[in-house]
Amino acid sequence: MTFASPQPLWWLALGLMLLGTVSLWLPRTWWWAGAVMLAAGTVADATFIVLRAVGVGRPPVMGTFENTLVAAGAIALVALACALAGPFAGRPQLARLLAPWAFSTLAYGLFFRSQPMALEASGRSLLGYAHAFVGWLDLAVLLAATSAALATAVAKDSDGLWDEAHARLLGIGFALLTVTMATGALLSLLLFSEWFRWQVVESFAAAAWIAYALVLHARLMFGWRGRRLALATLAVLPVVIAAFWIWSVYPDTYHYFERAVAMR
Amino acid sequence: MASRTYKKRSLWRRLGSHRLGQFLLGTWLVLVLIVLVPRQFLATGEPVRHFAYSRFVVAFVYAPLALATIACMLQRMPVLRRRLTASGRQTSVRPDEAVALGGSFDRDRALLTLRKAGYRHVVIDEAGVSGVARRFAPIGNLLLHTGLLLLLLGALLTTLPGQTFVGRVRIAQGESFDGSRSSYFESAHGGQSPVARVPAVTLTAASSEVAADGQPTSLVAELRRGGRRIRLDAATPWFASLTTVVSLEDVDETAFVSIAPTGGPEPTASAEVLTDTSRRRPASLDFAVARGVYHLVARRALDAQAPNAVVVTVGGSTRTGGYRLIAEDRPLAVGAVLRAGGTRVRVDRVAPVATLRVTQSPATPVIALAVLLCALGPLLRLVSPRRVAIISPGPDGAVVAVRVDAYRTSAAATRRIASIWRDTP
User: Fold this and answer.
1) What ranges do the domains of chain B cover?
2) Which of chain B's residues have a Cβ under 8 Å away from the Cβ of A218?
3) In this structure, which of A184, B105, B109, B373 has its CB flanked by the most CB atoms within 10 Å?
4) pTM
């Protein structure tokens, strides 16, 4: 099996995620069809990831294309989890807002080389894999929190469900961001003998962490709720997107992986 | 006197206020976004790092934030203690959060149900029966903030002059390294910092695998200290002590080449010529032998039949100051001798050579603990949030309400209590 270009399985995952995203907006009795299509897209994405990992002999952590695969899968999983559990269990509202992120993240991979790249020596570590996977899960949860915040800010939230979902996801996202940064700091020590290198990714991550700490303190200590808290969370979104994706376009950082050569 | 005590208390309260904490966190955020991030795009690396740990930032952001965090933590210790030992009655539950259990309210049954469900500190009063589960979860906040304090302390230690040492050493297979100052070919340290103390170790093996563009895809080295083997790879350093980390940066090969005039004593000059095989670039050295100056370029032979062969090109200076080529691209096996232009060149041996980076910083153990606490604290809150349950009499019989930390209600916890209630006589 060759991995020279996006395979039919990848296109299938992209198509199913697009159909799922659109179908989730169908009337009440039909949104399940969207959830099923999104789930099928996630399975196709996961299968592609497993096949590729087996083919190249390492987890998919090298290059923007591979990372979009994992990130899109994580976002789709969190979207499905939001439709099955939590304040919106059995309802599509949160999944509707989150699913477009999964599709667009997977589509973002189209702009990058899909050919598998050789993993650098410094990348071969369990801690590095854990850092990457916890990071993408964290991005998915933070996007879910942001989606809930968007709904809180623009929709009528009479029963407080959006606010509750927003608060829960914000707490989980902050905890995961802390774990992501902690594993990253440990990895940085092992690789470069430095805990924090203040490169562009680390700086944006630090900014996002401080910003979410501010938002959480505002909720817990100053009683911010509803629209005000939602607007604060929405304001952090550009920083989060920059922290998680700037390395894919800005080469002057260790996190830039596009330079590595294709596997022989 | 009373007024002075009041003022002191007021200052102390202000130092530990949430407002000041938020303001300082906001200042830090603005500093990162307005100053540090733009600098990343103009000049990466050291300038940004220097600014992040500059005295200005330490004095006006980190230190006040650390003091405010300490004051805030100390002022809220009694709150934490109360929460750890609190009964469920201290948390109010809104009536609309209550779920009917079925059957009439019975105190003994409610008590038994909550105990079976794992709730402790069960209290019976006129409002009903309440209990707390996972009461140690609030410690997660304490751990996170202690971790933040240690991070700030680590940043402070990093900025202290004469405390941090970074040195690079290159040792060939079979050679030893004892951490003496002369063994480092490159070092950077603030002020009069001592050289990192590393126990004497010998490099017993080293190897690398390289991709087509020369990027190493695998680096492995083995050190021996007495009878103990220490394995290093690119992501697995050796912690020589709590404050000293030895990392493997690169593995190359070194050809030990000697050069002498033909018929002269042997050897007149010899040196290690680093043949940077992983990057496929030749390395060169100038030798002064007797009255002549010779220039030698050595590279690894790309010959599968003779993997250890070194290709040498030798040139020398002429009497008029020009350059004359003595031998060009001559493959030499280990031990073989090249005689040309009145010189004798011999490759004595080819050995792998490891480049090690030695870093010594008192901040290392402090930040290690900080990172651990920062990760553990939120995880503790996330995995095991504190729950308060109240079973009380409602208009149509017993009702239960469960409140989970930072959230509103917990359907799963409520369902579990309802299930135990049904099974409890």
Assistant:
1) 2-82, 86-137+384-423, 165-252+355-366, 253-352
2) 22
3) A184
4) 0.83
